[in-house]
Structures are given as structure tokens and as C-alpha cells.
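A quick aside before the break. I want you to see a complete sequence-to-structure record at least once, exactly as it would be stored in a machine-readable document. Don't worry about memorizing anything.
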Amino acid sequence: MAGTPTHDFLAKLEKKREEVRGACESMLMEARAQGRDQLNEGELIRYKHALADLRGLGERIAEYRGELERAQLPAHLSRLSHPTQTATSRNTTMHNHADARDLVYRRGDSRQSWCRDLIRLSLNLDSDGESRARLTSHAQQVIDHPAFEEHRDLSRVDGSGGYAVPPAWLMNQYVELARPGRAFANLVQRQPLPGGTDSINIPKVLTGTSTALQTADNTPVADVDLTDTFINAAVRTISGQQGVAIQLLDQSPIAFDDLVFRDLIADYASQLDKQCLSGSGTNGQVLGVRLTPNIGSIAVSTVDIQGVYSAIANAIQTIHTTRFQPPEAVVMHPRRWGWFLALLDNQQRPLFLPDANRPWNAAGILEEVASQQVVGSIQGLPVVTDPNIETNLGAGGDEDPVYVLRASDVVLWESGIRARVLPETKAQNLTVLLQLYGYVAFSAARYPASIVEVAGLTTPTW
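That is the input. The structure line, written in C-alpha cells, reads:
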């Protein structure tokens, strides 16, 4: 650029910039008129080129204005205005001033007002399109103009920018409380609970008749009278409830009442299973298997594979001998099944092998890595694990029993589970009571000889 800078040349540059700015706005308006939110590939390339030209013209205008100002000042005034500035600092200062003067909206400039342009545009008073053009240019300047650059040291710490990164609450993945199920209760014979009663009585033959060989013709025939008795199974109630503020039910983004009822049902199943295993028969409890009179009991001689394996074999033959029917399952705590799986022979080979290995000399078979269902077999009987089996029995308080049983001889009567929602009970507090209950009766006394408890199994070592 030779010669003295003139205002005419500056006006030409500013006119050119307005033309480029108008072209940018036209491309955006044309796309919007066609109902498109984005520019196509060709339009986007032209738009980026136009923005680059717009930035170049802005820098050129700012530089030319600086030259005009310096040309209008006498040399000695120019030197005196910044007596200690180096060439670099003078250039930097002039560039910053030029940047500020190049802004569409500047502090203290009453000729251009961002608020006024925004109001004109919103009220459809921008007939010449100038307000829209200035707002468009200002939006672009906010993105890439040096005057709007801002640097701050922020982090994700709350109060230092962290509130801009909110936690994501995955309400549809609410983590429910882990509870044991009802493996033993599902194993026994189940019947619907008869209505209209609080006790179930079942008649039972106590002593039977007798037959014998007749010693000779016309001699007396064996004549032994049958006696009977009955077994009783009291109907018990398992129940639970949860008070919930009505605001929680109304304003929670999830069905919170459904969450509460699912948890109540899960605990109901666990409590029912525990009652079938070890209910005391008093204080509202059913009489569980462990405390049923006359069930069999065999203590292990030693807590090793030989002692436990022999005790289970003894329990099986006991049921065959006294019940005269075969046992159907072996039920144990998961920790006892894990102990079996950890057993090795003298050559460090596992004694309980997966069925896929087709073992020929195994103490037991691992059929499936499962929970609270059939996990394998031992001595031909399916093994069911149940974490509700107590592990604090015996003299040392660390024993867990193993049950060998004919499960079809044990009966569980159940009503349906009933749920209630009671908004009136605590209405003065806007509290809704979510309630769940059901009736059960249980008996292992039909054939106590069908059950043998293997005792003396202390805490296993690994």
C-alpha cells in the first residue's frame, strides 16, 4: 500500500466487508427459507470462505485505520505519546485498539446498540436488514474475534466450574437390594392354602395293622388294631410395610411404589424360605424342618471328604431304610458346595468335576455354576444350594447343616401375596402406607423319616 492512506480507500474496504457480510447472511436466510437447519456441503464451503474473507477484511480495515491515525498525528506527538514503548509493544497496543474499534458493538458507542437491533428484529422493524446483518456479524465476532477471548482456570470441582458437569441419574437402572430367594421352599411340595381357617390338621396312621402266618386251619388270625393321630400346621402371617411421603410418589420420575413393593416381595420370599428351614413353631412362626421332631440326624466323623461323603451315604440309606422310598435331593449352603468344589485328591486333582469332563472316578458332578437351584449332583442326587441355611449352629456356633430329603413328603401351603395402599392411615402427615402380607402353613411332620440332617460341618477352610 503506497502513498498516504485516505479515507476513500477505507470506505471501499468497509463497503466490501458489508457486501461479504450480506452474502453470508443471504446463504443462511436461503437455507432457512427452504426449511433446512444446516447448510449443504457446497454452501458450507462457500460460507467458510466468506467468513475467512470477512475476517481478512476486518484485519485490513483495522490496520488501515491505525495508519490513518498515525498519519494525522505530528511525528513529535506520536513519539511523546509513548516515550518508552518498543516497536513490538507499540504494534501490540495499536493492534488491540484496532481490534476494539473493529467491533460491531463497542462500549460507549451510542450509534450502534445490540439491544436496539435485537428489539427491531423481534418486532419486524428491520425493513432494511441492517439490524440482522449487525447481529450476525456480532455473533461471528463473539466466536473468533480477539477482543472476546477469555481464559480462566476452571475444573470439575463444584464452585469452580463443576456445576456445569452435572451427574447423570440413571433412574431406570435403580439398584435393588440383593436378597436370597426361596430355593428350599420351591423344592418341597406346594399346595394352595385352604380358605376360612387358621390351622390345618391332617390325620395320620400312628400304628398300623398286622398280618401273620396262620399256624393251622381254623386257628386265630393276627388281629392288631390300627391307631391314628394327626399332624397340625398352624397358619401364619408374613407381612411388611413401608410409609412413603405422598410427595415422593407424586414427584419421583420413577414408579417408586413399584420399587418398594418389589423389595417387600423379595424379603417376603426370603423370610418364607427361612421359616421352612428353621422356624421355631412359636411366636407366630411355622415349625421348620430343622426343629421338626423325629427327623434323622447324622454327625460327620471328620470334616473331610471321607467323613462327609460317608455321612451323606449314611443319610441316603437311612431314608431308604426308614421311609422305604428314595430321597430326592441334597440341600446345602453355597459355602459348603464351594468347599466340595475345592477338594483335591492326593494327586492334587479336583474331586468334583464339571459334567463336560465326563469324569469316571469323581466324588460328585458340577453340572452348572448357578445359584439357589440345582448346581450339581452327589451320590446320584441333585444338589441344591440355599443361602438361607443357617451357618451358626453347633457347639462352636459355626456349623451349617446339609439336608438329605425326600422333598415331595414336605408340604408348604401358601395363599396369594396381597398388597395394599393405605392413604388414610397417616393422612394427617400426607403419608401413604404401602403394605404387603400373605398366609402360609408348613409341615415336615407327615414323614419325618424323609429328612436326615448331616451335622457337625464346621466352617470350611480354603
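Two observations worth writing down. Residues 66 and 115 are 29 Å apart (CA to CA). The chain has two domains: 7-79+86-148, 183-455. We'll return to this after the break.
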